[in-house]
Amino acid sequence: MDIKQLIYLTNLERERHFGRAAEVSFVSQPTLSMRLKNLERELGLSLINRSNNFDGFTPEGERVLTWAREIVSVYQGLKLEVESLKHGVNGTLRLGVMPQCSVALPALLKAVEARYPQLDYRVAAMSADQLLEALNSHTVDGGIGFFELTSLRELHFQTALLKDPGVEALFNPAHFPALLEQENISLATLACQPLCLAEPTRYFRRYLDGQLRETGLIPRVIVESASIMQLLQSAQVGLGVMVSPRGHLLPELMQNLARRPIEMAPMGRQAALVIAEPGRASPLAQHFFDEARRHLPD
User: 136, exposed or middle or buried, with CB in 10 Å at 0-12, 13-18, 19+?
Assistant: First the structure.
């Protein structure tokens, strides 16, 4: 058994296809298949369900995968640590991010850049369940999202809690002049406006829908999108009122928009930056986490 066999196995898990797994492993498909068959022979176990195509892993294969992920993660962490000792902290950090979390991620990354200018980022939008699974399987190095605190404690993640600054309405004052007269916007007033909201599957949208439902209010959602930029542009041209956690958007993106706090109960989940527990987090993730939490709002 060698590390390449375990890398091929984890690549196959991620790609769910022999050809694509071979491509990301930089080998031919016959080579990848042969090395995985050799691994099965050495272990004396069938790991992969084979038909004409990849058909998932056997129960034994799932158990071996759990170890393979850990070993590959430690191996990659060792490589990064050696590189950082020779050339400083550098490489690509994989981040999973839940949309509309209460921090402007580009501003945070720019602050970290001052300390680690050679660090690159690959950012993927994920749901809470996807993010937890990605962190556990080491397919991302860190995450920013809304979490149940009990889940974070049970999983032993390193956690930097994000401040909850509340929720605000963003609108074009030329199209919604009456909202300018209010210091705070009630849910009843908000429900009377055409709204620009994220898709119902997003946690922040579910939180907002729950608050409205508890008060018996049924809003008109004029624009619904997975794209924050589409929602922001819709608010800028006066199509409707965008609802967003405060601190999520850069001030430069909100030019020509008015902002008013919305009177709402706090979220049930806690926004946080998380990485794996000490010893399991990659050196790259640990360097990023230690520096990033210095720049989070108090």
Answer: middle
